[in-house]
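Hi F.,

I've been meaning to write this up properly since the lab meeting, where we talked about keeping a consistent format for the predictions we share between groups. The idea is simple: the sequence comes first, exactly as it goes in, then the structure tokens exactly as they come out, then a line or two of notes. No screenshots and no reformatting. I'm using this chain as the first example so we have something concrete to point to.
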Amino acid sequence: PPRSTLFPYTTLFRSQKLWEPKENPRVAPACQTLAELPDDSQVQEVGFHFFKVASTKCEAIKAEFMRHDGVDRIKSALEKHGKSASVVAEVAGLVHSLTNADDYSTMLSGVFDAAKAIGNEKARVLPLMYSAISHHLGEPRVVKELVAALKGCAIQEDVVKNIINDGGMDLVLKAFREHVTNKGMAARCMMLIANMAENDDLKKDLCRGQAYDIMLNAMGTHANDALVVKCGFGAMASMALRMPDNTAIMMERGAATLLLEGMRAHPASPEVNRQAMIAIRNMVCRCPDIAPTLLAEIGRASCRER
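Output, unedited:
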């Protein structure tokens, strides 16, 4: 049966990544299986898991899946099995892989085109993701995969606006608030917020609304986790860029202390410190008057350490 034939492929790509057929990947049978057995949830789960594992750090397999009507396969799986946590998690994991430029052995990547195709309003894939988030709201393992998939698709202004207008961001923030103690969920939600905040109009709403308060809660809850802190600082940097009003709100809510304490807590993490410095630069660039406050906070911290 198709389910059993897919397991060896999954094992192969997981254990022997160096043997990946980068030039002529032969994954058409797996694509055909997904197309021919759309109602079999077990086949869909294993098939999407296979492609998720195989396409990670392999540009050729990402492209091959998309060439074999990948968007239709994703849409079909979410339509027919949107209530299956295991299938949805694998589908979302594959979307995340397809939209993640992680194959550094190639000079050109098709992940931008994949993200455009999946996020295209006519494809109607994103509304199915929102529906899945709503249905699996109590399952952070599933929702964090869907959030990562949305983050991969949110690369164009029209997609970002659609996520906002269609209620997708409200669902994400609801899940973020409910599962703020889950490290994986917190990190991925703040990565999505950082992407969404690239839009100057939308970043105002994110900062003035509930998003920033939930971020503060998450970074406080996971202050010892470098990944969560890094993602939070990245979102803060995006919110502050070209937005002095946002900077003022962030400073009123303790951004200076948060940034400096985060850097102090993770001195060995270059990414935490890099994102913190970008955030400080973006804030001070348009609001030089906050520099004395930041310097005073550094001085107080130095006194406490002595």
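Notes:
Residues 257 and 297 are 7 Å apart (CA to CA).
Confidence is low (pLDDT under 50) at residues 15-20.

If this format works for you, I'll send the rest the same way.

G.
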